[in-house]
Design goal:
Elements lengths: L1 H19 L1 H5 L8 H11 L4 H35 L20 E8 L4 E8 L6 H18 L26 E6 L20 E10 L4 E10 L2 H4 L2 H15 L11 E2 L2 E2 L8 H53 L4 H10 L5 H13 L4 H12 L2 H13 L4 H55 L2
Antiparallel strand pairs: 1-2, 3-4, 4-5, 6-7
Length: 449
């Protein structure tokens, strides 16, 4: 847990430093391969060119960089959690018995005699130690407990505070029952009471180590010193606080003194680190969810845009051809043909016509307009206009007529595909309906048998 806590604290610090230094990252954004793709996506979602497109792209890249750091932290936590999960693959029909000192495990079995099946819960007890294993474990546990039972005392011959008497040995294998020959001075849980002592007291502490089957005894003599010999100012304050708490148990509140002799008394406020860590992880996950939602919305917008442009292409190309054949110039025909499709097509066409009005070359503007719309049908159409427009209206009309015929064919094929998909979706309900009908027909015959 200590290592995990360190990483939880370290990761946001690294992320903040990286975000602060994003200006160095932005210096090289123009050389990165994915920046033109992002600019193209933004240009499709909203009509942006020139400085406005550069600013939107820079903001998008920096925001994506921050979100990437957050996602990286989340993936690190998930990978760490997966790594800490133990992988077990027991052989078939083989149940791993719990190790000695562990709790029993419940295994659900299925019993079948050919006719009846019944579930049975088998309690698998932990493995029992042999006498040799228990003797070795008891010797090791006694040695470890003897070293740690002093607690915060200097040694066992100068006891002034509570002893450390654990209920199990450090390995958790053996259970320990404690007892003393003077319970009024040292209790079974190691609490030392020396308020009434006037001289040193020797107490025998006894421990019984057991695995549930075997037992081993342990004794140790300790010397408890009276308060008069060792009591410090803080210990005196602790004893006084204990007396105040005991005398005020019938009251609703405990009033703490600000000072006991030369010792200042104040309540220490603590915060829970686990709560902070959970809140941190929740915030990171929430930020990742927002990022995923954002990309999903953008993808859905682009999908709807492409579907809408694809759907209106036949009508647009047909109106454009009719207007040019009626004598309209290309500039006016494009604006009139796109005027009906106001949502996506008209803003792009208007921007392109404005560029022509400022002196830009028509061929380049038409080619760029096709690339901005991004669909093969529009790229092909505006490429035809940019190349055939200067050569004369007759050749342009012939090519536009061919584009209209191709668009009509594609529209028919698309309608046919949608019909086939609709039929596939209706297939499952039809099968279910047929099964119900068959059941209704054969049920009377089966029930009468």
């Amino acid at each position: 847990m200590t290592i995990i806590t360190i990483f939880i604290i370290l990761l946001p610090i690294l992320a903040i430093l990286a975000i602060i230094s994003r200006k160095h990252f932005s210096k090289y954004k123009g050389e990165l391969w994915f920046v033109p793709q992002i600019a193209g996506r933004l240009q499709k979602m909203e009509v942006l060119y020139g400085r406005s497109l550069e600013d939107a792209t820079r903001q998008y890249v920096e925001q994506g960089f921050r979100h990437f750091l957050i996602l990286l932290a989340v993936l690190w936590f998930v990978a760490l959690g997966i790594f800490m999960i133990p992988a077990t693959d027991p052989a078939a029909g083989e149940i791993q018995r719990p190790e000695a000192g562990k709790s029993a495990e419940k295994i659900t079995l299925q019993l079948t005699d050919g006719k009846d099946t019944e579930s049975y819960i088998l309690s698998v007890e932990p493995r029992e130690l042999t006498e040799e294993e228990f003797a070795a474990a008891a010797d090791r546990a006694i040695s470890q407990v003897r070293e740690k039972m002093t607690g915060r005392n200097a040694d066992l011959q100068h006891i002034t505070g509570n002893l450390s008497l654990p209920e199990r040995d450090p390995s958790g294998l053996l259970k320990i029952n404690w007892d003393t020959d003077r319970l009024t001075i040292i209790s079974r849980n190691g609490t030392v009471r020396r308020e009434e002592l006037e001289e040193e007291a020797v107490v025998t502490v006894k421990g019984t180590f057991s695995d549930g089957i075997h037992e081993a005894g342990f004794e140790e003599k300790v010397t408890v010193l009276p308060y008069s010999a060792t009591e410090t100012a803080i210990e005196k304050a602790i004893r006084e606080l204990g007396r105040l708490e005991e005398n005020s148990r019938k009251e609703g509140k405990l009033l703490l003194p600000e000072q006991i002799d030369d010792v200042n008394v104040s309540e220490k406020k603590t915060t829970t680190k686990n709560t902070i860590c959970k809140l941190y992880i929740f915030l990171v996950l929430f930020a990742c969810i927002l990022a995923v939602r954002k990309f999903s919305r953008e993808k859905e917008i682009l999908k709807k845009r492409d579907e809408e442009l694809e759907r209106v292409f036949y009508r647009f190309s047909r109106r454009l051809t009719l207007l040019i054949s009626a004598g309209e110039n290309i500039h006016s025909a494009l604006l009139q043909a796109a005027a009906v499709e106001e949502r996506y097509l008209l803003p792009e066409v208007q921007y392109a016509m404005n560029r022509i009005g400022t002196g830009a070359a028509e061929a380049g503007v038409y080619a760029r307009l096709g690339r901005s719309l991004g669909l093969k049908s529009y790229i092909r159409l505006f490429s035809t206009i940019s190349t055939a427009g200067p050569r004369g209206s007759s050749q342009l009309m012939r090519l536009l007529d061919q584009e209209v015929r191709d668009a009509e064919t594609e529209a028919r094929e698309e309608a046919k595909k949608k019909g086939e998909k609709a039929q596939e979706k209706l297939l499952i309900p039809m099968v279910l309906l047929m099964i119900v009908v068959i059941g209704i027909v054969i049920f009377p015959a089966v029930a009468g048998m």
